[in-house]
Amino acid sequence: MSVPVIFLHAFPYGPAMWEEQLLLVQRHPVLVPDILGYENLESAAAHVLVKMDARGWEKAVFVGLSMGGYVIFRLWNLEPERFAGLVLADTRATPDTPEQKAARAQMALRIRQEGTGFLPEALLPGHLGGTTRTRNPALVEQVRQTLLAVDPDKTIASLKGLAERPDSVPLLPDIATPALILVGEEDTLTPPADARQMAAQIPDSRILIIPQAGHLANLENPKAFNTALLGFLREIDH
Fold first, then answer.
1. Torsions phi, psi of 89, nearest 5?
2. What is the DSSP code (8-state) at residue 171?
3. Element housing 127 (H / E)
4. Is 235 helix (H, G, I), strand (E, B) or coil?
5. Based on the number of CB atoms within 10 Å of its own CB, is 81 exposed (0-12), middle (13-18) or buried (19 or more)?
6. What is the pLDDT of residue 28?
7. pTM of the predicted structure, to 2 decimals
């Protein structure tokens, strides 16, 4: 049997963001848990492990984008023996700065006061690269509608969890499993410099910069993302 794959989504999206990748990896058992709404990313990781245990899986390849990558680090911290490999996409190992924590708190307060109607205006410029915003209006609208539909309470809870996540940089040299690091070349939130920093510290890692993509690289350039992912899964399976 091919190795199981667990997809961990970005904030404040949900499992549906992996739809195109799920079509590709049909020969693998897959799990796509909802990790939005946890005030503590260790709790999100524990939730993933419970789902994994329910399937009877000892090991899996974990694929995490942005917040999903942060949860991967918490999973490694909890049970590193469960990893057959990991994919860190558009994410970083460093914690939030004081300014970033303050911005998350301000966003949470604004959601409480106004609802989620402002989220596209606040998040789209950082989540989608310039190429997507100018050339792919259908994807821009799709992401806009997704942001308008997010659960306010779960989004607020996740903002707390993101702001309070620990520094994962000390974990990097001890990651003793194959790692693929992917990042959109136009990602301004977790830029290629962050990806290179992780690649330099994870022993068995390989890195690919995804062209014409921002922070949501799996949606913006699915062809390049999927080719890299499938190649990595073939490597793990052999």
1. -115, 125
2. G
3. helix 119-127
4. helix
5. exposed
6. 95
7. 0.97
